[in-house]
């Protein structure tokens, strides 16, 4: 069984074990994680990545940045609540310098980064990158040059794995604690495994690319995260809280955005939230406020109730999590689970399949496919089919970042790291940057015009 003493280690890659307060800054190691993320470039880029809706000229809706801040806030509350339970159950944790606030900081930091690996245009962007390598001739040419497990990564792009790659990469200098990285990892397995257990939520997707396997193994060993099989691990218990924070926010806040955008009526919204709010719903107060004020009040009440229910369920299943016997979404186990399911069903019907969202997704497919095609062709021609290398290819390669790895490739060299760098470049773009670059490389817009 996993032990909290190890699971809450404040150590980092390259450092020895740490816990408690950092003597130089007076902050816990996990508060340092949070601050590093806030000031990082990948986190700032989330400002121009849409959550569900395209960025509108009027009416506030959520970007990936505002969504991540809200998920982090909910995550902190969940972590502190769970921390109070853990300190009461395991008083010796206090002797190690662990407080409920420190546990809240782990969940808050991990939740802050939960979307950091998402490409432009959200889930449509993930599919577009996967489809490029899986279906398009320009992408499929690489298959014969890489290993089977590496190809599995490329044809099934996963934002969670991209996020883990970014968080452990020296390029961004975040150097987060092992505990925060493990709480971030909802899917502790690589893309290609012998057999997926569909009953385990943690195996629904994958959490790291094959070239981050050594990083993940080191993290798991330090924290005492146990293996289920040869190629899959148990979730860190705090990862369940990060997942719950995301589930709570997108369920309630996407509904709020849908109402703000006029896709769902206020009456429908109220009806869906009523089972969660119970006797906390005061209809008389609704009459004296604007719809926007009412939505904000209802959202706050609903999230507060869902936090309380989730902390209670965490306490109920905490020991089973450490044994590796519990592997479900906490929000599927709480009293309000049915209400959340009904919100999800309506959101699919009226929000996620609305015209404005589908138009954004269609544009995302076109833009990312086009960018990958142009840059992939230029790289392939330059290193693996030099007889086809053109003046256009030369110009395209000059648009790659200055630190892009342009040396050491050739017909006898496995190009997987090169392709990972290309996907890093494309997936790290904001929506607007991707759109503008697509227009320029395709001659739709003239640079400087």
Key terms:
mainly alpha; Hypothetical protein af1432; putative deoxyguanosinetriphosphate triphosphohydrolase fold; 58% helix; globular; dGTPase; dGTP_triphosphohydrolase_C
Percent helix, as a range, is 55-70%
CATH topology of the largest domain: Hypothetical protein af1432
Work out the number of β strands.
0
Strand content: under 5%
Low-confidence stretches: 53-59
Number of discrete helical segments = 20
Terminal Cα span: 63 Å
What do these coordinates show?
- Keywords: Hydrolase.
- InterPro entries: dGTP_triP_hydro_central_sf, dGTP_triphosphohydrolase_C, dGTPase, dGTPase-like, HD/PDEase_dom, HD_domain, PHydrolase_assoc_dom.
- Residues 60-260 form the HD/PDEase domain.
- One of its GO terms (molecular function) is dGTPase activity.
- The longest helix is centred in the last third of the chain and has 33 residues, at 291-323.
- The protein has helices spanning 4-7, 29-38, 41-45, 64-89, 100-112, 122-135, 137-140, 148-154, 159-168, 178-184, 213-223, 237-260, 266-277, 283-286, 291-323, 337-352, 355-383, 391-397, 416-427, 431-441.
- It is globular, with a radius of gyration of 23 Å.
- Helices cover 58% and strands 0% of the residues.
- The protein has three domains: 4-237, Orthogonal Bundle (Hypothetical protein af1432); 245-355, putative deoxyguanosinetriphosphate triphosphohydrolase fold, CATH 1.10.3410.10; 357-441, no CATH class.
- The protein has 449 residues and is an all-alpha fold.
């Amino acid at each position: 069984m996993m032990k909290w003493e190890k699971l809450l280690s404040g150590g980092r890659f390259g450092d020895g074990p740490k816990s408690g307060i950092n003597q130089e800054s007076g902050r816990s190691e996990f508060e340092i994680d949070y601050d590093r993320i806030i000031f990082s470039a990948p986190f700032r880029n989330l400002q121009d990545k849409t959550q569900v809706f395209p960025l509108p000229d009027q009416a506030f809706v959520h970007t990936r940045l505002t969504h991540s801040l809200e998920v982090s806030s909910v995550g902190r509350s969940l972590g502190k609540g769970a921390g109070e339970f853990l300190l009461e159950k395991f008083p010796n944790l206090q002797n190690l310098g662990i407080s409920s606030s420190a546990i809240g900081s782990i969940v808050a930091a991990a939740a802050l980064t939960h979307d950091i690996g998402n490409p432009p245009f959200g889930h449509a962007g993930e599919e577009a990158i996967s489809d490029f390598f899986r279906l398009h001739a320009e992408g499929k040419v690489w298959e014969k040059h890489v290993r089977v497990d590496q190809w599995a990564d490329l044809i099934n792009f996963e934002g969670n794995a991209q996020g883990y790659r970014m968080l452990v990469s020296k390029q961004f200098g975040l150097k987060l604690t092992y505990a925060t990285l493990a709480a971030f990892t909802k899917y502790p397995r690589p893309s290609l495994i012998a057999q997926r257990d569909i009953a385990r939520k943690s195996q629904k997707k994958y959490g790291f690319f094959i070239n981050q396997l050594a990083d993940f193994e080191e993290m798991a060993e330090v924290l005492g995260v146990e293996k289920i099989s040869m190629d899959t691990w148990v979730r860190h218990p705090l990862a369940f809280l990060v997942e719950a924070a995301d589930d709570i926010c997108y369920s309630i806040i996407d509904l709020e955005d849908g109402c703000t955008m006029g896709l769902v009526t206020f009456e429908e919204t109220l009806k869906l939230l009523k089972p969660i709010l119970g006797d906390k719903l005061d209809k008389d107060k609704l009459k004296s406020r604007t719809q926007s004020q009412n939505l904000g009040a209802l959202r706050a009440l609903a999230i507060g109730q869902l936090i309380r229910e989730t902390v209670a369920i965490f306490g109920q299943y905490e020991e089973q999590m450490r044994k590796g016997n519990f592997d479900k979404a906490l929000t599927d186990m709480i009293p309000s689970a049915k209400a959340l399911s009904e919100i999800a069903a309506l959101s699919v019907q009226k929000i996620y399949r609305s015209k404005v969202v589908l138009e954004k997704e269609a544009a995302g497919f076109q833009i990312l496919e086009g960018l990958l095609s142009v840059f992939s062709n230029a790289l392939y021609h330059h290193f693996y089919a030099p007889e086809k290398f053109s003046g256009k290819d030369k110009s395209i390669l000059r648009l790659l970042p200055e630190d892009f790895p342009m040396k050491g490739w050739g017909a006898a060299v496995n190009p997987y790291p090169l392709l990972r760098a290309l996907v890093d470049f494309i997936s790290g773009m904001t929506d607007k940057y991707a759109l503008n670059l697509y227009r320029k490389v395709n001659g739709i817009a003239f640079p400087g015009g």
